Sequence to fold (328 residues):
Amino acid sequence: MADASNADPKPSYVHTHGEPRASLVSNTLAIVGFVIVIVIVLWGLFHIATLGVPWLSSLFGGDSQTISVDAPKDVTSGTPFAIKWKYSNAEQGSYAFLYQCKDVLHFQTAGADGAMNTVPCGAAFTVAATNNTLMLTPLLSGTASTSVPVSIVFIPSATSSKQVQGNATVTVNPIAAMEPIVQPVVTPATPAVVVNTAPIVTGPTDLSVQIISVVPDGLGGAIATFDIGNEGVSSTGVYTFTAQLPTTSGYLYNSPTQTSLAPGDHIVNTLRFSQAQSGIFSVVVDPSRAKNESRTDNNYASQQVSMPYIPQQTYYQQQYPQYYPYMY
Fold:
């Protein structure tokens, strides 16, 4: 009979703990690596977003640093106009004017001495603007209207700051064609009749002339005012005078016969003429008909005339009312 203890043997088990510990280390390292990858990805996204802020801001109009430019849509060649702008900024800096180059168009602006300076195209022209206003004179050589983009640029003193710009478009129209006059229009003075009730005194006469003023009339002409008097002790008798007018072609005005002046009398004459330009205005009193003229060195007077520059403009013949001189 067999031994019962060997008939049903019990199995034996061997437990190994090395494999679970290695798996735990691998999982820990995987989690740490995953966290590192997430940190790197988040840092990269943040860096890209930081670099893209200016581009996104300009793309969606988020940049509030702009200059508001106010300029007329239509102007006429030779006629000054104003460009105004608004910009709020505490930074120190200067403003510049910029416009696109056109073969038939350029701008001028008055300098500190009052002379007109040409503004170069395609380059920032620094301006000393008053109350954020710039006066410009467009000069168009063509016969067709021309549109030109213009800009006002703020240039900060700090090199680390960005420039700010505002834009507008101005259309420059040519001057309407006008027929020029051939001969300047002169309105001669009509002398006042001097009634002399003083006793007749014999002795030498002394005609004299003095220029009071020569000023532009704003229409391309000028108004000259001068005084003719008798500094002698007897009446002058009739006399004449001539005036050299500074016009584009030169003009010599010859007066009709003037009424005799009593001793101490003066008469103020006014001549208005067109096509005036800078030059010399002069008056000569002719005493050839005067009686016993004592001296002739005061029969001539002259004055330098400065007329404003009005480019590309021709003036029509103007009809002026009579201007009567007066006596004192």
In short: Residues 53-63, 312-328 have pLDDT under 50 and may be disordered. The radius of gyration is 46 Å. DSSP finds one helix and 18 strands in the chain. The longest helix spans residues 18-59.
